[in-house]
Amino acid sequence: MTPPVFPRTLRVKPPGGLFLTLVICFLLIPWLSLSLHRRLIPESRKFFLNPSPVALRLFSGSFASFLADMFYIQGILDISGEFDSPAIRIERVQGDFSAALSLDPKLVQGYFFASIVLGHDKEGITKAIDFLEAHRGLNSSEWRILYWLGFSYYELGNYRKAVDYYREASLLPGAPDFLKSNPVMLYYKAGKADLGVAYLRGLLGSLKEKSQVEWIKVKLEWLENIAELEKKALEFKGRFGQPPQRLEELVERGLILNLPEDPFGGGYYLDKETGRIKSRFDPPGRERSPDSRPCSSCEKRAS
Question: Of 15, 100, 164, 237, which has the fewest Cβ atoms less than 10 A away?
C-alpha cells in the first residue's frame, strides 16, 4: 500500500542574524560615539566623526525620529562636557545638533543650543551665525531661527544685518508683535534714522490695533526728529566747513527754529565721538540689546 504524500510545507525564515546585527549596531552608534569620546580616546587626542546628513537620512529609515532624539541628547550632554578648548566644544556640539536636525528639522531648540548657547565671544558668535545660516533651510517657516540670527548679528555690532533678519522673521507665521518694531532701535544704532522712518511709515499702514498704532506714532516722531537733526547737522557742515559741536548751534545759526522735544523725555544731544544725534535715554558708551539675551522660547515682549 502506497503511503500518502503530503505537500511540502514552506517555512518563512526570520530575519537573518546579519540584518539584526546591523540594525543593533546602527542604533548603538550614539552610545558608542559617547563612549569613545569620553573614555577610550585620550583628552589630548580627541577626534570627532560627524556623520553625513545625507547618509543619516538614507540609512535611518523608520528610526529617524529615534536617532534624532539620540543625537539631540548627545548635544545636550556635550554642552556641559569637558573639552580641550571652546573651539572643540563648539565643533562637537554643533556636529551633534546638525545630525539631529538633519533627521528632524522640527527640533527647534536644537538651533538654539547650537548657536545662542555657545556664542559667548566673537568667534563663538560667528560660528553660531554660520550654523544657523547653514541649517535655516531645513525649517524655513520657523521665525525663531531668523530671530536668533538677527540677535547674533546685533551682538557683533552689525545692526544692518540684524535689521534684515528681524524684519524677515516678523513676516513668518507665529512671529510676536515686538519683532515688527524692534528694527527701529537697530536703525537708530546703525545711524540710519532715515531708513527707520521709512520702515515705520510703511508699518503704520499694516496695523489695525489702536494701541499699537499710537505706540508706533510715538516712535516715528522720535526717529523723525533724529533724522531731521542729522540732516541739519550735515547742512551745517556744508555751510560752515565743520560739524556743529552742540545741537544748540543749529538754532543759533538759524538752521532750525528750536530743538524738538524728545517724546521719550530724555532730550536729544550730539555725540562728539561719533558725530551722531542721540537720545538721552541711551547714554554714550552704554550698549543696550533690544531684548537682552533671548530665551529659547522667545516669548518675551518688548516693553
Answer: 15
